[in-house]
Amino acid sequence: MPAYRDYHKILGIGRDAGPDEIKQAYRSMAKKYHPDINDAPDAHERFIEITEAYEILINRDLHEYYIHREQRTDSEFMRARYEQARREAQESARRYSRMKFEKFQQEQEAFKKSGWHDLILVLRYMIRILIFPVIAVFFALPLISEEVSEHPTGYVIFWLLACLLIVFVINHWKGYLKIDAFYYHLSDIRKFWKDTSRKTQQECYYCPGQKAMVFPYKIQIFRIHSIQLQTFGSLDRRKAGSNREIKTVLIPRSRRAFIVHALVSMIKISVLISSMIFITRNPYARLSLPIGIVLGGAAAWIFLLLSGTRSKVSYLVSYGMMIKFSVWFLLIWFFHGYAFIFLFLDPMLEALLRLISADRLFIPLIKQYPALNNLFRNHYQLYMELPVFSVISPLFRWLL
Q1: What pairs with residue 219 in β-bridges?
Q2: Among residues 194, 242, 192, which one has the least CA distance to residue 222?
């Protein structure tokens, strides 16, 4: 087996292919050569080859090393990392090849059904559309802003950024607004809305006295049993993971509660965006985000109170979350924009709070659905304490 394969040729793509094209080529070929549906004698090896090519090309650093490996002398560290990545990619492919094709499809289908595929796709389209006004702003800013034009570096930095964005657009122009197909269509949304009128015999938890519809509100919650650490021979070759038990709580919800909760999300998002746009005077401008969260929460609470509906995210209200919010408020007040550096320290704060209180600080202060309440009291949690994620995940849950 040669040390270096032509990974672009294996996936049938050009050497200038971007991440989107690499992913699409891999999905197409992985389905074609999966050993469970391809009876060819070399299907197993071909599948391993395809997965190895994908794992190398999708990693920016490894892709760069692979492209220029013959033109320069690289460090022993980079060569070792590259070879380790190749071995891990081959092992990953062998593991997938043993997986039944039905399960392989089910995993992809479950991701799309969850709605995350379409949501991420919408965000990607929005970013690609917004790139054009951003390019215009970067080109115009040094010409219309005295503060920027006074410094020669202002021209260089903003125009360089504009040029980089133009290069990105040119490289992806062929399928710029054809990233992928949406899983859900308008007909699916209409069918879902029609199905919400179908009721069960259960009573809605959020609107007492209302009959629940056939679509309950789902909350996934997990508990970590152990942390796993694998070592591959040297200090820099380690992989960490966790053994988790995941439970899904199904909470009966009526159509009325569903509509109220959707309106509440719209209120929160509107108030948050409005605060960030209209609160421009110092010293309050730098606090526009936390102020928006407080005002959005207050507006949502009033709306829920008037409609006689329980909040679907009241499980976020805990002493631990209040401490975290207070810490962020103070950081933003004293450190201004530099406070976001502490995104990487937030998991340490939460882990410390969980440790000293045995998770009690993160038990909801507001009474929850019995099954959910019991899980919180048995050390289950909503998200992993990871950099950035431990801040973004609660905020995203609160908004939506």
Answers
A1: 249
A2: 242
CB 159 within 8 A of CB 138: yes
> Tens digit of pLDDT for each residue in 170-212?
888 877 888 888 888 888 778 777 777 888 889 999 999 999 9
Q: Give the whole-angstrom CA distance, residue 143 versus residue 146.
A: 8
The torsion of the CA quartet 158, 121, 398, 299, rounded to 10 degrees, works out to 80
| Cα–Cα distance, 387 to 394 (Å, whole number) | 13
Report yes or no: 344 and 388 within 8 Å, Cβ to Cβ: yes
Phi-psi region of 247 (alpha: psi -120 to 50; beta: other; left: phi over 0): beta
The 3-class secondary structure across the chain, one letter per residue, is CCCCCCHHHHHCCCCCCCHHHHHHHHHHHHHHHCCCCCCCCCHHHHHHHHHHHHHHHHCHHHHHHHHHCCCCCCCHHHHHHHHHHHHHHHHHHHHHHHCCHHHHHHHHHHHHHCCHHHHHHHHHHHHHHHHHHHHHHHHHHHHHCHHHHCCHHHHHHHHHHHHHHHHHHHHCHHHCCCCCCCCCCHHHHHHHHHHCCCEEEEECCCCCCCEEECCCEEEEEEEEEEEEEEECCCCCCEEEEEEEEEEEEEECCCHHHHHHHHHHHHHHHHHHHHHHHHCCCCCCHHHHHHHHHHHHHHHHHHHHHHHCCCCCCHHHCCHHHHHHHHHHHHHHHHHHHHHHHHHHCHHHHHHHHHHHHCCHHHCCCCCCCHHHHHHHHCCCECCCCCCCHHHHHHHHHHHC
Instruction: Give the Cβ contact number of residue 18 at 10 Å.
Output: 14
Torsion of CA 21, 25, 31, 33, to 10 degrees: -160
- 313-339 pLDDT tens trace: 999 999 999 999 999 989 988 887 788
What does pTM read for this prediction? 0.63
The whole-angstrom separation of Cα 229 and Cα 237 is 11
Cβ 57 vs Cβ 89: under 8 Å: no
φ and ψ of 234, to 5 deg: -140, 170
Amino acid at 52: E
Q: Are 314 and 364 in contact (CB under 8 A)?
A: yes
